[in-house]
Amino acid sequence: MSQDKPMHFIRQIIAQDIAEGLPPSAVHTRFPPEPNGCLHIGHAKAFCLDFGMALENGGKCNLRFDDTNPDKEETRFVDAIKEDVHWLGFDWEDREYYASDYFEKLYELAEELIKNGKAYACTLSADEFKEYRGVPGQPGKPSPWRDRPPEESLDIFRRMRAGEFEEGAYVIRAKIDMASPNLHMRDPAIYRIKKAEHHRTGAKWCIYPMYDFAHCLSDAIEGITHSICTLEFEVHRPLYDWFIDNTSIIKTLAVHPRQYEFARLNLSYTMMSKRKLQQLVAENIVEGWDDPRMPTLAGMRRRGYTAAAIRNFCEVIGVTKFNSLTELALLEHCVRQDLNKVAKRAMAVFDPLEVEIENWEEGKVDMLDAVNNPEDESAGIRKIPFSKRIYIERADFMENPPKKYFRLSPGGEVRLRYAYIMRCKDVVKDAEGNIAKLICTIDTESRGGNAPDGRKVKGTIHWVSADHAREAVARLYEPLFTRADMSDLPEGSDFKDFLNPSSVEEKKILIEPSLADARAGEPLQFERNAYFMADAKLHSPQHPVFNRTVALKDSYSK
Question: What's the pTM?
Answer without folding.
Answer: 0.94
